[in-house]
Every structure is written in C-alpha cells, then in structure tokens.
Specification:
- The structure is a single chain.
- The chain is an alpha+beta fold and 215 residues long.
- It has 2 domains: 29-163, Electron Transport, Fmn-binding Protein, Chain A (Pnp Oxidase, Chain A), CATH 2.30.110; 172-206, no CATH class.
- Helices cover 26% and strands 25% of the residues.
- It has 8 helices and 7 strands, in the order H-H-H-E-E-E-E-H-E-E-E-H-H-H-H.
- It has a 7-stranded antiparallel β-sheet, with helices on one face.
- Helix 6 (179-186) crosses helix 7 (193-199).
- It is globular, with a radius of gyration of 20 Å.
- The protein starts with 12 loop residues before the first helix and ends in a 9-residue tail after the last helix.
Length: 215
C-alpha cells in the first residue's frame, strides 16, 4: 500500500495554472487538425513511434513501434497507417483500441530533439489496398492501425536536451543487467539464463519479421 503522507496534490485547473502560469500563446496555438506537408515529411523520415492507448476504464498502455524510416504511411492530410509486426501477441494496444479508439502517437527521428505528436481515432484493419506498401523484408502485416488524425503538433526539444538522450558519450548500456538477466530474475519459470541469453542473442535480431513459431 502506498504511503501518501506528506503529499500535497493539485486539486483543480485554477490551482495548476496558479503554479505554472499562463500558456505561451505560440504553444497554445500550434496544433492543427490535419498534417501539414512538413509534418508528413517528418513521419515519412521517422523509424520509430510510440502508440498510447487506453481501455474503457481509462487504464493506459504505451507501445513502441519501429521499422525502416517511412514505415508509417501517410495516406492523406488526416489519415495514416502503422503496420503491425510479429511480436509477443499480447496486443494490449489493439485490445484498448477495440474498447476506446482514441490514440496518441509520438514520432521520433534519431538525433533530432523535437518530436511530432499526433492524436486521433484508430481502427484495426486486417486488409486494404495499401497493405502492399507496408511489406518489409518480405513480411506483409496481418493487421495495421489506421489512424484518423484529429490533432497534430511538434513538441519542443527541452526534454531531450535535459536528458542528453542523443549524446553518445552519456550512454552507459551496462548500468543495468542484460535483458536476459532481467527476464531470468523477473520470471523464474525454469528457463535457464543460458537459454535466455541464446534467445536474446544474434538470432533475435535476424528473426524480426518471422512470425512466432514459424520455421
């Protein structure tokens, strides 16, 4: 049970604004209801995005999606599509979309400290003419997330600059155990550490587009 002793909450919007101050007019007016060509170019250059969803009760999920740059296809000023690739089959985001179609997307370009945010409504589609444009390494997705755009805007670079996210000299990949070691500690189900290290080894990267269980 969490101990809330000493925690002072913000109760309402008026109190929030009294602390933060007024919104910068330029920030307040920067969102659009559709994709500007410059924003479409950003999406087409992005190899990675985050997909935020929530279920009917408001419980949230954020799922990473990545492929070669341009994997997310812009179908028009108010529509884009994100292909689904082989994974663990939990499909948390898809379950949420069925219950609540609202989604939030953040598109990143490595080395650039800005991000593009897209909010809208999503549908899960199992086939469409544009599926042929979603093939990567011979893999044609079984499903895709079709997003009708409602709000778009660029987000400033301050979080990336503060975190030094793209500064290679600050990277320390050994600061925590390997993924195999973490998995072995969190889920002691009889699979040995050696087996997990083999699973997450070189073959893991070479089977990115292979469906689980296929040969």
């Amino acid at each position: 049970m969490n101990d809330d002793k000493g925690i002072v909450e913000v109760a309402d919007v008026a109190e929030l604004r009294s602390i933060l101050g007024d919104v910068n007019p330029r920030a307040a007016d920067k969102d659009r209801p559709d994709l500007h060509p410059m924003q479409a170019r950003w999406i087409e250059a992005s190899p990675f995005c985050l997909v935020a969803t929530s279920d009917a009760q408001g419980r949230c999920d954020v799922s990473p999606k990545g492929d070669p740059a341009g994997f997310c296809k812009v179908l028009g000023p108010q529509q884009l599509v994100i292909p689904e690739r082989p994974g663990n089959r939990r499909a948390d985001a898809f379950h949420n979309v069925i219950a609540n179609g609202q989604v939030g997307l953040i598109f990143l370009i490595p080395g650039r400290p800005q991000t593009l945010r897209v909010n809208g409504r999503a549908r899960i589609v199992r086939d469409a003419p544009f599926f042929e444009d979603l093939i990567v390494d011979g893999h044609r997705p079984k499903l895709a997330l079709l997003v009708d755009v409602e709000q778009v805007f660029f987000h400033c670079s301050k979080a990336f600059l503060r975190s030094n996210l793209w500064e290679h000299e600050t990277w320390n990949t050994d600061v925590v155990p390997t993924h195999a070691q973490i998995s072995h500690a969190l889920k002691p189900d009889g699979i040995s550490l050696k087996e997990l290290e083999s699973y997450y080894g070189k073959s893991y990267a070479t089977n990115l587009y292979r469906e689980p269980g296929s040969k």
